[in-house]
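Exercise 7.
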Amino acid sequence: MWARLRSWAYSTVHSGEVRCQVVPNTRRKSLQPIVQKHIETGSSIYSDNLPSYRSLDELEYIHKVIDHAERYVDGNIHTNGIENFWALLKRCIKGTHVSIEPWHLFRYLDEECFRFNNRTFNDGQRFDIATRAIVGKRLTFAEVTGKSKEADRPAN
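Solution. The predicted structure, written as tokens, is:
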């Protein structure tokens, strides 16, 4: 599914909070600045064996790797929390939305991050949080579709 989108999403679990963003690729040059922006140096990072993560310990992180070819858990070292998030996101896209466009991927990530980060609340409480966050903000049709009114007007 992700290869069809030709967009990559990167996520971190930070103190129990998931943060996601669409990235151009999963190469070291793209991922490491994002890691540095969102994760405090000296923090423990548990990742899979993706080569892009290999030099994180050089950036002053305590980096532990779980190689899924060998095992999925090694004591406290695992990626189960973030794998849970990705499973929920994929289930939401396949089951609820069926198909999404790559240029809207960041919106779906935001929606699932919100739901995941507020999973201890019930639906009413999440609705209250969401409605309080939109006060004074406006999303126009042009922003959603990528079309502006000027582009739709015939030339004189």
